[in-house]
């Protein structure tokens, strides 16, 4: 099997991001920079392909990389990761050990998952806690089932995040097997987010819109209650839990993305 990292970035200035990120495998870089172009080079036997595109939107970038990948296994990546030693060997070993897995969620060293120290198959509720940096998949499984990132969501869409949850729930709906393997692949700095501007009213309204779009009305309302109460420690210095709940409900009823049920 062959692994390829799918790295999304904007206005890339320094192509040495491969060295800075400790990447030691084949890589696609999709650089959203306002013009179209292509560059390719080899480093230590690994191919790096840079696609410069005149487009915006993180999910569009992810989909572009998936469609242009030539690998058996893909790993999503942002421009603020530093990879662990032997990450490629660990990832490919996990797929050999779990041949039934279509998607494998890995661990991030400075943001560890809470699923323990043994591999496990993930259920619907587990998927709500997965970040993009953790997601790998067999490209053939994704392409053959026509599962891509929803371009109505994600950074640059104006509709907030949760595109990873939508992607994984679409994988699940198509019968793809999603596993967690407690192998640490990287650390994430995430010093500056391209979409998160704080726990303001827009954040909670967008969350209401996206959760209804993904889940439907009734589960989204239950989620609004859960999130506003159980996660209030994350935002209660900015906004009360009750106001957060009301704003999420406003987004649910606004239904900007069009999920009707």
Automatic annotation (TrEMBL):
Entry-linked Gene3D superfamilies: Spore Coat Polysaccharide Biosynthesis Protein SpsA, Chain A
Protein name (database record)? Glycosyltransferase 2-like domain-containing protein
**In what residue span(s) does the Glycosyltransferase 2-like domain sit?**
45-134
Q: Which organism is it from?
A: Coprococcus eutactus
Kindly give the Pfam families that the UniProt entry links to this protein.
Glycos_transf_2
Instruction: Supply the InterPro entries for this chain.
Output: Glyco_trans_2-like, Nucleotide-diphossugar_trans
- Source taxonomy: Bacteria, Bacillati, Bacillota, Clostridia, Lachnospirales
């Amino acid at each position: 099997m062959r692994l390829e990292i799918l790295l999304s970035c904007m206005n890339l200035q320094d192509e040495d991001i491969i060295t800075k990120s400790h990447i030691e495998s084949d890589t696609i870089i999709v650089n959203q920079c306002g013009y179209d172009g292509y560059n390719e080079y080899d480093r230590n036997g690994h191919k790096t392909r840079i696609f410069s595109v005149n487009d915006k939107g993180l999910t569009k970038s992810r989909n572009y990389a998936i469609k242009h990948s030539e690998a058996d296994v893909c790993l999503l990546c942002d421009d603020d990761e530093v990879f662990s030693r032997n990450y490629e060997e660990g990832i490919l070993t996990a797929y050999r050990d779990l041949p039934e897995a279509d998607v494998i969620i890995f661990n991030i060293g400075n943001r560890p998952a809470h699923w323990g120290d043994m591999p496990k198959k993930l259920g619907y509720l587990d998927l709500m806690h997965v970040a993009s940096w953790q997601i790998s998949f067999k490209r053939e499984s994704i392409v053959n089932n026509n599962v891509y990132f929803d371009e109505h969501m994600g950074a640059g869409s104006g509709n907030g995040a949760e595109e990873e949850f939508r992607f994984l729930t679409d994988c699940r709906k198509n019968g793809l097997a999603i596993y967690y393997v407690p192998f640490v692949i990287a650390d994430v700095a995430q010093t500056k987010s391209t979409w998160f501007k704080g726990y303001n009213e827009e954040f909670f309204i967008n969350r209401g819109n996206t959760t209804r779009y993904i889940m439907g009305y009734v589960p989204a309302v239950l989620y609004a209650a859960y999130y506003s109460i159980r996660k209030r420690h994350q935002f209660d210095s900015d906004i009360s839990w009750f106001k957060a709940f009301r704003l999420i409900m406003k987004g649910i009823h606004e239904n900007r993305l069009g999920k009707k049920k």
